[in-house]
Specification:
Chemotaxis protein chec; alpha+beta; seven-stranded antiparallel beta sheet
Length: 212
């Protein structure tokens, strides 16, 4: 086989891999749209502008400045797929969704109450569950998530927990950026999946994609 043919095969496999990851993002977004619309009793459209496999430094650069205040909701994964996942939102985006859910003025940016934080956990549960359901359905493997751990802090601090786990679990993070669109507002969130190396291989193998 010539070098050109090898290069073309490698590109084909990489393209197939990213097509699969985009499909996970799109199905998850569809699931989350329905669930979130029902939760806040308002129409929500969701798009997936970015799906990528990144190392941790690239991941930190994509989600914004280390000093930005964000809400991070972290889960440990068990079952057929092991690792960690996090759903992260900008502070203003989190406020917007909570305000919709609790009936507060949309411009309200006061400190989160205990009730607000509970509502945020529920939102994170629903959105993360939608993506996990999409992934589980596509790969036909069982995935269980732990109770959520939530933090409201600077992005650098929130990402420090998965950063430590990143080196222990593997060297790949799946990033799905989601945009939630309502009539008068658009907010962004990030779904971050960090599977173990073994679990990443299981995901790709289940989908018939060779891991490069």
């Amino acid at each position: 086989m010539s070098n050109q043919e090898s290069f073309e095969q490698l590109n084909d496999l990489n393209n197939m891999r990213y097509d699969v990851l985009r499909e996970i993002g799109n199905i998850g977004a569809g699931n989350a749209t329905t669930a979130l619309s029902q939760l806040i009793n308002s129409r929500v459209d969701m798009t997936v502008p970015k799906v990528d496999l990144l190392n941790f430094q690239e991941l930190a650069d994509v989600v914004g400045s280390a000093e930005d205040i964000v809400v991070g909701i972290l889960f440990n994964l068990s079952g057929d797929i092991q690792g960690m996942m996090m759903f992260m939102m900008e502070y203003t985006a989190a406020h917007h969704l909570v305000n919709c859910l609790t009936g507060k003025e949309k411009e309200n940016m006061e400190a989160f109450t205990e009730f607000d934080l509970s509502a945020l956990k529920e939102i994170g549960n629903i959105i993360s569950g939608a993506y996990l359901s999409a992934l589980s359905t596509l790969i036909n493997l069982n995935i269980k998530e732990s109770i959520p751990y939530m933090s409201v802090d600077m992005a650098g601090a929130v990402l420090s927990v998965p950063a430590i786990a990143f080196g222990e679990l593997g060297d790949k993070a799946l990033l799905i950026q989601s945009e939630f669109n309502q009539t008068d507002k658009s907010v962004s969130g990030f779904f971050i999946l960090i599977p173990t190396e073994e679990s990443y291989g299981k995901i790709m193998s289940s989908l018939g994609v060779q891991v490069i």
